[in-house]
């Protein structure tokens, strides 16, 4: 089907643009770090109100302006990426449904009867296997991940709108979703001890590091 392939190409292009934006933001951030780590809000004048002579004020102002513009572009780009992920997910499901309809029609043409309903159900399940994309290797006590019910060795097959059909095998994709969905619900499909669990994860600030409090690696 042409649709999913085209959407996937667009998604990969936007992901590449996102990475380039992040590289530029980091580069301008280094400029601020090199100028006494002045950051985005550090003073540009001394205690007497004169321009500081220990930093390059022109470069600092330019870097701050560029970072603001790039961060706005990054926010807009992340929204487009999320929309494309949802679109690709929907198109993939539609393609699977069309394939199933074609197979069902072919079975009917070949004289398959309604007595084969159990075989048809097995075929439906076989068309959409649950494939893990990442794995949890550690969960911190009291973290958002633990509160959601995640455990070490859980394998995640769906992380929001990302699944095996559209995942680019870059952990930065998961990180981007987490950052963009801060304080929002992210539905997960989790494989644990041959069971499939539906879990809702809410990335948020807590007493530990990061927004999740767990370590995620690519699934083997």
Automatic annotation (TrEMBL):
**Residues annotated as domain Nas2 N-terminal:** 12-90
Name listed for the protein in its UniProt record: 26S proteasome non-ATPase regulatory subunit 9
SUPFAM superfamilies cross-referenced by the UniProt entry: PDZ domain-like
Keyword terms of this UniProt record: Chaperone
Among InterPro entries, the record links this protein to:
Nas2_N, PDZ, PDZ_sf, PSMD9
Source organism superkingdom: Eukaryota
Per the record, a Pfam family?
Nas2_N
Q: Which residues form the PDZ domain?
A: 132-199
Sequence segments annotated as region (Disordered): 92-122
Where composition is biased (Low complexity), the residues are 97-108
